[in-house]
Specification:
Layout lengths: L1 H11 L6 E2 L8 E2 L3 E13 L4 E16 L4 E11 L2 E14 L2 E9 L20 H7 L2 E11 L5 E8 L16 E8 L7 E4 L1
Antiparallel strand pairs: 1-2, 3-4, 4-5, 5-6, 6-7, 7-8, 8-9, 9-10, 10-11
Length: 197
């Protein structure tokens, strides 16, 4: 009896890794979803008011992965962005060839470097003022990106976006689509040059 129960548990337990293989026998694609999270709490004190507070600044959870060799996805939600729940990213991406990719869905608009860093990648406790006030823009749209290496890494990103922002998608119709583009060059290790428009 115990042997049957053990066999049933082992049979019904999902494998920690899932792979998809094309019919022509190419290498398998790992389709296991990856789950990530970032929790950032802080304490602030204002000497003038002689008062302080604790705050959960960020509580992000994301899931991303591959559906095939050329199709991937990402969904990210912030459960506590200064007390509000926000869907940050929800997109699908197709990469038909090396270096070229198409993305459709909600994502960060390609405009700055600092704003594209997740909270766990930041150098300091808070973003720079410019990144927080100007470059922190997420929207729904489509983007094309091309990465090449003509002697040094070079990335060009351009997209068309609604201009509705994160929460105003349902009844938002426009005849003025927003365009955003960014070119990044990395001529030396740890150095970059970015132009955007």
């Amino acid at each position: 009896m115990n042997g049957r129960i053990l066999c049933a548990i082992v049979t019904l337990t999902p494998s920690p890794h899932c792979f998809a293989q094309d019919k022509d026998g190419k290498k398998p694609v790992d389709i296991t979803p990856q789950i990530h999270g970032t929790l950032r709490g802080k304490y602030e004190y204002q000497p003038n008011d002689k008062a302080g507070r604790f705050e959960v600044r960020t509580a992000r959870v994301s899931i991303n992965g591959n559906l095939s060799e050329i199709i991937s996805y990402k969904a990210e939600i912030d459960l506590c962005d200064e007390g509000e729940i926000k869907m940050l990213d929800a997109y699908a991406r197709i990469q038909p060839t090396t270096g070229l990719q198409f993305t459709i869905g909600q994502e960060r608009v390609p405009f700055t470097i600092d704003a594209h860093r997740s909270p766990h990648q930041q150098y300091f406790a808070n973003r720079s003022f410019i990144a927080k006030q100007v470059g922190n823009v997420r929207d729904v749209g489509a983007e094309v990106s091309y990465k090449c290496h003509p002697g040094f890494p070079f990335v060009i990103r351009a997209g068309l976006f609604n201009g509705s922002g994160l929460t105003n998608q349902k009844d938002f119709w426009t005849n003025n689509i927003n365009i955003s583009a960014k070119a990044e060059m990395y001529p030396l290790p740890d150095w970059n040059k970015t132009n955007k428009g």
